[in-house]
Structures are given as C-alpha cells and as structure tokens.
Amino acid sequence: MFGLRILLSSTAICLIGVITYSSVYPATNRISLPDPADISKIPRKIGLTPSKVDHIQGVQGGESLVMFQGDLVTGTMDGFLVGIDPESLDLKWKVKCPLSGPVRYCRILGLRVVGEVLFGLDLFGRLFKFQSGEFQFLFDSNSPQISRLGPGFFSDLVVHQDMVFITDSFTLREDKKHLNLFQRFYSFEADGKIIAYNLKSGEAEVFADNLHLPNGIELHRDNRSLLVSEGNMYRILELDLETGDRVGVFSRGGTLGSVDNIRRASKGGYWLGVSAGRTTKLHVSDILATVPLLRYFLTEYPTFAPLLTPLSKRSVEQPRVYRVDEAGTVETVVFGEEDIIGTNALSEVLEVGQYVFLGSPSSKSLLRVTL
Questions:
Q1: Burial class of residue 9 (count of CB atoms within 10 Å of its CB; 0-12, 13-18, 19+)
Q2: Phi-psi region of 290 (alpha: psi -120 to 50; beta: other; left: phi over 0)
Q3: Residue pLDDT, tens place only, 44-90
Q4: Which end of the chain has less Cβ packing within 10 Å, N or C?
Q5: Nearest Cα residue to 234 out of 184, 286, 309
Q6: Do 263 and 4 touch, CB atoms closer than 8 A?
Q7: How large is the greatest C-alpha to C-alpha distance in the chain, in angstroms?
Q8: CA-closest candidate to residue 150, choices 129, 169, 127
Q9: Do residues 238 and 248 lie in contact, with contact meaning Cβ atoms separated by under 8 Å?
Q10: Long-range interactions of 278-281: CB distance < 8 A, separation 24+
Q11: CA 112 to CA 199: how far, in whole Å?
Q12: Prediction pTM value
C-alpha cells in the first residue's frame, strides 16, 4: 500500500511538472483547435434504431462506397472488390484484387467512379482502374514518379477531368516509423500532402503540402476548389483547384469529429463520415493540443503509446455521419449506439435515393439506413 502511494504521488508530481513546464513552453508548439459545432442548434438529429438499419452481411471492413453500373461497390477486409444490389442487398459479384511484386495483401481504401471506369487506391499506394471486370494498375508507391515525392499513407482520392487528387495523410520518415496510428494522430504534425496524378501523361506532383493528417477529399460543387478534411485538426479546408492554395476553412465551427469521408448529398451540401466523434472541447485532442510537453512524451516514445488508447475512448452514442449545407453549416446529424450499428467507428457514407449506406474498416457488415 505504501509503495502504491509513492507511485501515485510520483505520477501526480510528474503530471504537475509537465503541465507547469508546458505553460511556459513556446507558444508555437501549442495547437489551436476550432470549437465543434453546437449540436443543440442542429435542425435535424436522427437516432439510429433497429427498425431503421439493415445490415449487409458478409461484407467486412467496407472502406469506401460508390455506385458503379447500378451496384453498390466497396472493398473488403479480405481483399475483394464486391458489388451489391442496393435494394435487395444481395451480393451480385466479387473480384479478388490481384497482388504484384512485394504486395502480399490488398486492402482497398478509396474508390471513385468516372463514367464506366472505377478508380481505386489500396493500402500499398497502388492506383488502379477497374473496367469490364479487370484491374489495371497505374502506379504504386515505388514507381519513380511517385517515390520521388516521398509518399506515405494514401487515404482517399477524387478524379477531376484528367487529374487524380490523392490524400497522403503522413510521410513515412525513418525517425517516425516507431509511431502507431494514435501517436500519429495526436502528434499534430503537418507532414501530410495532396498528390496530383495526370492520367494522360502519367506524371505526378505535390499539389498541396504542410497539411495535418489529410484524409477525406471531395470536389466542391463549384468545380473550382477541393474540400479536404484535416482529421486531427477537426476542420475541412477549401483548396483552389488550379493552384492548391488555401481558400479558407469550409466547416463552420469545426467538425463533429475526425472526418474520414466526404461525399456530395443529393439535395445539396455534403455528407461527412466521422471516425472519432468530438462534440465538446473536453476531448483528449484539446488537452494534447494545448499541453505540448505532454503531447511530446505521449507521441514520441513507444513506452507511452498504450496510454493513448484508453484516453481516446469515445462515448457509446456519438455522431456517426452528418450533413452540411453548401456553406459548411451542420443540418443533419445521425447518432448511433455501438450495439445497434455493430462498430464504434463508422466513417464511410454514400447517399443513394432514400437510403444512406454506411461503412467502417472495423465493421463486420455494411449498413443501409432509411432516413
């Protein structure tokens, strides 16, 4: 008992020391996060109930959702591209993603449709076209035009005319290889970028850099800018489509969590998929953003990495997906408890007619929600 008291006292003294030292730490090391939108003022709040949710079984880990030639299409945890009837929810077809070179596992992360062609990204930085049941790979992270850009972790993509814009969430530097995803998230390093790939010439360039964990990406309806979520900054940036310059912050009042996915809504505005909810400033992100020395210890040393998992636990009921209008103001929020939706981290969203389809890399099924 005496030893436990000493341990607790020592821990308390260390925490007081860290916080005190952090108060005089250079202000440049402190991160200012936007206040989340006030959910009490949101016009439409929807709670998911069993009667509103259909589970599409046998499709584990749906990471991206698109409509392709009349089918709902996603990639699965075991490396398949699958097509599902959006009405009957029957599995219509599945094609194994081929392996090549050092790639021993295919995990599809992003999908987009242009006409009769399906474009996609996988975990190993391979960009592919899928047409007539066949995969055609355009590059991987070791291709000369890509490797010279210092690729890291590709997350999502959008296609505009002859250009493919790819979010590269963070750079895989040698001195950072020991960090896990939680440490990457809470380090707040601006080492992410957008890569632009020309489908005609096969050339690639850095379109925008110094971004904080860029993830979801969508073409703005004005066709003059890109919307890019900075996951750990809880905001969506608007980037000029020609220059990559920052036009401003699109999301009013900050996002309701770490936005993993951005998709256009049928009646205007955009659906946002949230992989980690944040509806108040009482969040571990806010603590680590304003106490840089504590952030340094927790995100730089593997010894402290396990502490970030319990600190990151979210409430059972949280925003899963929500819709904003053309100005970025929140209009509709869909809440859901883990025992109903089957996962604690829904992040993918696609509106199809009267339905909204939801997916998650950690879920054992896709969801169809009737709103």
A1: exposed
A2: alpha
A3: 888 888 788 898 888 888 889 999 999 999 999 889 999 999 999 99
A4: N
A5: 286
A6: no
A7: 71
A8: 169
A9: yes
A10: 278/36, 278/234, 279/36, 279/39, 279/318, 279/319, 280/36, 281/33, 281/35, 281/36
A11: 14
A12: 0.89
